[in-house]
Amino acid sequence: MQGWVDGWRVAAGALLCASLIAAGPGARAAAPRAASDVQLEVDALIHAGTADSLAAASLLDHLAPRPDDDSTDDAAANAEGPGAQPGQLIQRAVALAPDRPELVWLELRDCEQRRCPEVRQLADRLKALDPQNGFAWLPDLRALPSQSTPEATQIIERMGAASRPRLYWNALAAAMFDALTHHERAPPPTSITRGADDRLLHVTGLLAAVDVPAVAPLARACRLDQFDLPGRQAACESLMKRLASSDAVIAQNLSVSLQESWWPAGGAEHEALRREHLQQRYLTVASNRFRRLHADRDAEIRVDYMRHLPREADVELAMLRAFHEPLERPAAWREPTVAP
Question: What is the number of helices (H) and of strands (E) in the chain?
């Protein structure tokens, strides 16, 4: 269970690349991405100067090489430094559109990754803008020295009482995709933006790395051995129900996986959750099926659904309808595997 939690954000990226799995090894890969391509796109986005273009530049700039980027440790230290360029760009985006909670969320996530001192301040701002987003209270839980406290239970209760736990996935993906769409602007498209499928792969991969928060504190707080604490089991059960209706598939996966850990393998409850998890995986893999001759058109259709549908799961269902595929997992379906 702990290994699953530690790899949650990595799993998010894997989910978003499920079409690679469905198509088979070697059937699809992002175009080679030169450092110069990243810089060209970042410069063009900064020049556009809109809230969405600056937010997209902030995301894309996480790929840009840093000065003194000659080792993994140096790169990590530089990326988390107080003057990191992505942080400056998302701050400028929020300044242009201060009432958009999804941009404040990206600023919060960037701040958490850099361990900047304004995390709690940004979380409070998000609570004021979107008080029904339970994820806005996650930094409060992470800040506690221990999750085995009454304060942790109160935070989980508050998260479960909020009706819309959101990562703003569809809205951010569509906005970033549109910002990276060249049309007639210069410079000409690069490996990142040449086709709609290229843009969507880069956007979703970057969102998986930045948009998805670390949830180890929540997983620890809702372990079975914490249920002896007053009110903890009820608080965690309520929160899992909320996460099941989240706008992001990865949050729904988290809900099912945590609940699976509460029940013994082979029992009726565990088996029901296992089937639900398989259904979730089927929707993700089948709806991301890569169709080589239709890749760009499929990407455009997916983004259009993202613009109009509130939840990522709704987009998956819409894509399956467009593919004329069953909405329920066929009995013989098994998750594809990829050789290491």
Answer: 19, 0
Task: Report pTM.
Answer: 0.84
- Asked, as a colleague might, if the bond just before 187 is cis with ω within 30 of 0, I would say yes
- Please give the biggest Cα pair distance in the chain: 62
Report the distance separating Cα 121 and Cα 74, nearest Å: 28
Is the Cα dihedral 255, 261, 262, 264 positive or negative?
Answer: positive
Query: Residue 76: left if φ>0, alpha if ψ -120 to 50, beta else—which one?
Result: alpha
Contacts of 39 (CB under 8 A, 6+ apart): 64
Give per-residue pLDDT as tens, 155-191.
999 999 999 999 999 999 999 999 999 876 666 788 8
Q: How many CB atoms lie within 10 A of CB 334?
A: 10
Q: What are the residues whose beta carbons fall under 8 Å from the beta carbon of 304, sequence distance 6 or more?
A: none
d(CA 276, CA 259): 11
